[in-house]
Design brief:
The complex is a heterodimer. By secondary structure, chain A is an all-alpha fold. Chain A has 18 helices and no strands. In chain A, helix 3 packs across helix 8, helix 11 runs antiparallel to helix 12 and helix 15 runs antiparallel to helix 16. Chain B is globular, with a radius of gyration of 24 Å. Classes of the chains: A mainly alpha, B alpha/beta.
Chain lengths: 401, 377
């Protein structure tokens, strides 16, 4: 939760008041940038210790400088080596088994500084670093400013769970001086925060227990029915909680005139899994598409004859979603969840390419309705792997078989 | 889908936002005109209060809590982590379930680090309600240790609040006598922590206008549902085969701790130079005397065998501290129960700093013996 204590809420309100007052009286973008940075750091200090911010700030400086070099010189070696280094560093921090394997190895000296960094928002920081480096290399980021870059990385509304903004979008909005539009955005932000609060505070607490633990329901229902109800509740819970959080994050950014991208677009009305991933955690899906899926296609195209495009696409789906699953956690159930979606997307691809074109009724309303229903059921079953550990999954399997 | 997309248009969101801001402000202002509910509706003795109620000094609930104890001729037991829930029962559980003790029940406000100083702000805010209240305060000598002997901002923040620590109507002499622990805490807070805690209290108060005042004005019968009352049904601890006996099978008799407690390498000596805990206790004793609170102190045991095993030289300082505490209580004319003779009893401890259920049983026997004679329960 973004505002999980009063201190953060009070800091945020104070920050919004100061920032908007300054924006009214001064047009200096540098001044705004400095106030946003001060606000970001101040609020983050209520969540993490100083050394975490210092270590990340040092990394920011390095990534920023590498990005600057990449903007002027298209060095593939520099891009890949810098990407490899930051991915390794973040993996060491995030995955217990990597920490254990290097604890006594030659890289043990890395343990102390990396492990002392608190985990809060690290994945999203990594995504932003990757985005900045790759887009600098592609020359899509042509100009960058260190303070704006620090704000982009440390932007507290979206540091914990997204949305993952692009550097150019963030930089555009922080430099935007249209006060009239800012006023509209401010009040729109209030509504988004209100909507998010209704979801996360008004609804989620009432369903979370049934959603995350089916055993609560077994007192009144048979185990199979309890699992079924719990699954439906989980689908509702994870959507409301996550999209509610995104509403609050987006609304908070609106309050200071930054229009961050949307993260959800009615995902449960998707007609297929591919569409679902265009509507669910949109910025993360886009990140996967740009920085995992597409490079994987290029890689497999070199290995496999381009005639077998369908096979290449299926392999890319599987690879991307295995990575997606592992990113969510270092437990095996997340791998199963990733595979579930990878396999689902592969089936959907085969259906779309080979079967759908020959079905005569694929454009009518009933087809659309059943597509939505089937996609929802598939996604909902997938949440079992996301929510329960491997041992619990075995228990559930034994109960329903 | 079109409807949802229309709602999410910035222009529409902005119009709704203006409406939400205006409504929010109106509700905020109206809230202050909602009359507060009166205390005194509670007849049964309240068992304990949740931490937020005491942290923020929720006036009505606190008043009812203290009054409910007085109305029922009960005791309020205050203590630190040793006075929290214990498998097999703690001393206040045994007191509450003792058939010989009729017409008296023991309510509870306890928690790790909840030393006597933390209760001072609440007692000062409820002077009328705590007049002639009977309390038992458990003094755990481990709080004189190097790591615990100072004021702990973390513990104070857990149980109290900067704003609650102010607003007393006291003479300079009274301030000097009672507020030493409070000042030690507030002096350690920086301006940001002070303002954040102050604002937190203001926001909570605005929220309470609706979630407390309005709610219970509309539905007064719901008010009592927020409390836990001392149950009339007794838990039969006596049927437990280990009731009143040490659990010898589970005890490492050399260290006098549970075999499952493996943290033998952990030990902290007494800090003889630090006087904060004595000052805190002195302020509390003076305040109780001034407010007409009938306080009985328990000088709790410390694990002598553990200390002897780890660092025999430190034992002298532990003994000395306990003697100092007893001397302070004697000089202050405070009633106290000396439970330090339990310090060397095998099976009386679960770990290096908490008594076991058997230890609690021995403490209960001492309390019963002393209070029964004095109070004719």
């Amino acid at each position: 939760m973004l505002f999980n204590n009063y201190s953060i809420f009070i800091c945020f309100v104070t920050f919004v008041l100061i920032y908007n007052t300054v924006k009214l009286v001064s047009k200096s973008i540098a001044l705004r940038n400095i106030i946003v940075l001060a606000g970001n750091l101040f609020i983050l200090l209520t969540l993490v210790k100083e050394h975490t911010l210092i270590v990340i700030a040092v990394l920011c400086l390095l990534v920023f400088l590498v990005g600057k070099v990449l903007q002027n010189k298209n060095s593939r070696v520099l891009l890949f080596s810098s990407l490899a280094l930051i991915i390794v560093l973040f993996s060491i921090r995030n995955y217990t088994y990597i920490q254990e394997s290097i604890a006594s190895g030659i890289f043990s000296f890395l343990n102390a500084p990396i492990l002392s960094v608190e985990k809060l928002g690290l994945s999203y920081i990594l995504f932003r670093f990757v985005h900045y480096l790759v887009e600098s290399y592609k020359n899509k980021i042509q100009k960058s400013n260190f303070i704006t870059f620090l704000n982009y990385i440390f932007f507290f509304p979206s540091i914990i769970a997204g949305p993952i903004d692009t550097y150019n979008n963030f930089s555009f909005w922080i430099g935007n001086s249209k006060l009239k539009y800012h006023r509209s955005l401010f009040f729109a932000g209030v509504t988004r925060i209100f909507m998010g609060a209704v979801k996360t505070i008004g609804i989620v607490p009432y369903i979370i227990h049934y959603a995350t633990d089916y055993t609560i329901l077994t007192a009144n229902f048979s185990p199979t029915l309890a699992i079924f109800i719990s699954l439906l509740a989980y689908s509702a819970y994870i959507y409301l909680d996550f999209s509610g959080y995104s509403d609050i994050a987006i609304g908070s950014a609106y309050l200071i005139g930054i229009k961050t991208p949307e993260n959800f677009n009615n995902p449960y009305v998707s007609q297929n899994l591919s569409e679902f991933w265009k509507r669910w955690h949109i910025t993360f899906s886009l990140f996967l598409k740009l920085y995992v899926f597409k490079p994987t296609i290029l890689f497999y195209n070199k290995l496999i004859n381009p005639k077998h495009r369908l096979i290449v696409t299926i392999l890319c789906y599987l690879t991307t979603f295995v990575i997606c699953g592992l990113w969510h956690g270092d437990k095996i159930n997340f791998l199963y969840w990733g595979l579930w979606h990878g396999v689902g997307l592969a089936i959907n691809k085969i259906w779309t390419v080979k079967i759908k074109p020959i079905i005569p009724f694929s454009n009518n309303r009933s087809y659309a309705f059943f597509s939505i229903l089937l996609t929802f059921i598939y996604v909902t079953i997938g949440w079992v792997f996301f929510n329960y550990s491997e041992e619990q999954l075995v228990t559930i399997y034994n109960l329903i078989k | 889908m079109n409807l949802i997309q229309t709602i999410y248009k910035t222009k529409n969101l902005a119009n709704n936002g203006i409406f939400i801001v205006v409504c929010g402000l109106v509700l905020l202002i109206i809230g202050y005109f909602i009359p507060d509910i009166k205390s005194g509706m509670i007849k049964k003795q309240i068992h304990t209060l949740n931490g937020f109620t005491t942290k923020h000094n929720d006036q009505t609930e606190l008043a009812d809590f203290y009054q409910s104890i007085k109305k029922n001729n009960g005791f309020l037991v205050l203590g630190t982590s040793e006075t929290t829930t214990l498998k097999g029962g703690n001393y206040y559980d045994f007191l509450n379930n003792d058939k010989d003790i009729k017409g008296t029940k023991f309510s509870l406000l306890a928690g790790a680090g909840r030393t006597c100083g933390i209760h001072i702000p609440l007692l000062l805010h409820h002077q009328a309600e705590v007049d002639s209240l009977k309390i038992i305060y458990f003094i755990n000598p481990v709080y004189w240790r190097t790591d615990l002997c100072n004021v702990s901002v973390e513990y104070w923040n857990r149980y109290s609040n900067y704003k609650v620590c102010g607003g007393f109507d006291l003479s300079p002499k009274e301030e000097k006598a009672f507020l030493t622990p409070i000042m030690a805490y507030t002096d350690k807070l920086n301006w940001f922590e002070k303002s954040a805690q102050y604002m937190e209290q203001v926001i909570r108060s605005a929220r309470r206008n609706y979630f407390h005042k309005l709610r219970y004005s509309i539905s007064p019968e719901d008010y009592s549902s927020q409390f836990r009352f001392l149950s009339s049904t007794k838990v039969d601890y006596t049927s437990d085969p280990l009731y009143g006996k040490p659990n010898l099978e589970s005890i490492d008799t050399t260290w006098n701790i549970l075999k499952s407690f493996t943290n033998k390498s952990w030990f902290k000596p007494i800090d003889k130079a630090n006087n904060y805990r004595y000052e805190e206790l002195t302020s509390f004793i003076k305040l109780c005397e001034s407010l007409g609170i009938k306080a009985t102190f328990i000088v709790g045991p410390y694990n002598e065998r553990f200390i002897t095993q780890y660092d025999p030289k430190s034992l002298g300082n532990y003994n000395g501290t306990v003697q100092n505490i007893k001397q302070l209580l004697t000089e202050s004319n405070a009633e106290f129960i000396d439970a330090t003779d339990i310090s060397n009893v095998i099976g009386a401890f679960n770990d290096h700093q908490h008594h076991s259920s058997y230890g609690a049983f021995l403490i209960y026997r001492k309390i019963k013996s002393q209070l029964y004679e004095k109070e004719s329960l």
